[in-house]
Amino acid sequence: MRKGRSTSIHRSLGIAPEEFVARLFYPAARRSDTVDDLFGLLVPDPYRWLEDADDARVRDWAAAQDRLFGAYRAGWSESRSWWASLVDQVSSFGVSEPPMVRGSVMFLAEQLRGDEQRRLLVVDAEGGRRVLVDPGEIDPSGHTGLYAWWPSREGERVAVQMEVAEQPGSDIMVLDVRTGEEVDGPLPRARNTSLAWLPGGEAFYYVSRVPDEELAPGDKRLQRRVRLHRIGSPWQDDTVVFGGEDAPDHYYGLTVSVDGRYLAITATAGPASHNDVYLGELLDPRAPHFVKIVNGRTTQARVLPRFLADNDLLLVTDHQAPCGRICTAHRYDTGPAAWRTLVAEDPQAPLDECVVLDDPALPRPRLLVARTRHGASTLTLHDLASGASLTTLPLPGAGVVSSLRTNAPHGRHAWFSYCDATTPPTIYRYDATSGELEQRAGASTAGHSPRIRSRSVRYHAGDGTEITLLLFTPAEEHQGPRPTLLYGYGSFGMPMRPWFFPMAAAWVGAGGTYAVACVRGGGEEGQRWHDAGRGPHKYRAISDFNDAANWLITTGRTTCDQLAIFGQSAGGLLVTAAAVQRPDLYAAVVAEGPLCDMVRYEHFGLGCTWTDEFGAASEPEQLQWLLTYSPYHAITPGVPYPAFLLTGAVTDLQTGEAHVTKMCAALQHATSSDRPILMRREPDTAHAAFPASKERALAADILAFAAEHTGLSPTKTTAMSLQQTAAETG
Fold it and tell me: Which pLDDT belongs to residue 460?
């Protein structure tokens, strides 16, 4: 904590300065004598009682933490207003993802400045636009969002899923696209569903959870089933066609062939790195006969099926190809030996996605493939029959392509989103008949985006492995170290890319460096990179991250006193574990919705489905993995820890809120530093589904906290310059 800051804070708390300095006046948290004997290991858990959010003592303690955070935030009031202005000016608004085109109707989402949530629009063949679903009209508070939508193949109906952030239920409604009227629903318990329409728009398959009354008391597993729903029928009559008690934590993905004769189902245990594939013939849609065509335990690979026009399969897989390849197979081929490689693996460019263009107007069907080479996307066009490369599409820069989409049932156009460090998501359309690529829509910022220099460098981890580090700095030259915000994730095979990120743009616009460490456990180098940082190797992700911090310091780009780290969800695990292992490296730590107690993470939220990534505490060997890096269990009394800001939703259905409360209490008890340990709770939101105003408010708080402890001071001139530019550009 910087000198002079404590005065305003202790006054707002109503306590004497000397008392504040002595203990930072943290709310008292009882340390219990709870100790678990786990396979002969004695594992203390002194803050187990904080897991019960309904306990009055927990509510009182959390309310006191809220007051403490409010007092600290009051001390940042001037700088926070600058950060809020910066974040507002660099946030993007408009259309940020490609449309879905079904029949003659285009469906697209739009979020304008001032909107709390995005709305669903339809555009007809003549170009007329109208709003089909506006969450702001449904719930003016902004807490209800448009989660997903699935148009029927003909574009005449659309299944829409709304979600209230802090509530576990997600209902599906079916709308008539022409009139906007509800024609069916609600279908309950469909959170995180997949949905596939049958031709004609009279029925679809979807995934929903078993009713609570059919579950054993306390059963928090997914317990999902694939059901057939017919428009106009009560949801109670929906037929279960797949899934059972033998697969309690499975996610299902659904795909129906163009002619409606076949249903393909992917089945994945949690976010595992491999999946099964089942194929069912729909002679009777209520009772498909399924054949298991891919056994995930055998292949140990991801396999994503798509139907071709003749009902054979296009398979996108990392089987014997960690960076991904594209294969074709007969629909009943039951093993990889029968697959034919269409587009081979490129070991230097992991495969991201692909889309088939097979409009009858085309002389031959095409395949558009997106890969990422050294952090930048490439788009190549291939002959669908032979896989031969035909051309490489020109892109606006060294940025990121995402969300490839095409018309249904047959594609002539391909839409995709492009962004980079300085370019908000922009929508492009490729015409396979003419070969033309044109910008169609996109998002824009409210003000002038700062000039950012973006580049990637390579550093060596402790074991000699080369790791990519993305660096974003102000365009002007600068000698000497800068206040730096280092971000990481490192789990579930999720790759880090040079996305457009308002928080990063604001930090760099204020004169700082924003860095992203592409540590092992992510997907930047394909499946091998993920495998190298998961399960028994998760410790590598953490050591890679600390090595990135050390590289930034030793190369003179920043100093320990100028370095803050930031992670979200599993990235929150990464940064808290890194800071507990090497508190000397960091001035401040921000963890948003983190995992911290890795011995009991399976008891909270969806944690029970993540054992493939982290391990299970019920297995002696895997418990050892978890204890080697679990941040909560590694905290040591008397250590001068960095400043910590632990943020989370009051109700977090994904990671659970106990990680934040337990980690906060343990750090406040242990630290010998005068740098604060703070907890920021947000009501009426979810793990990662904020209304826009709350999301920007959180970003301003995070930036103000990180700036406070790294010495980055945005000036009034900076904010005024952005505002002036916004006015000039309209």
Answer: 97
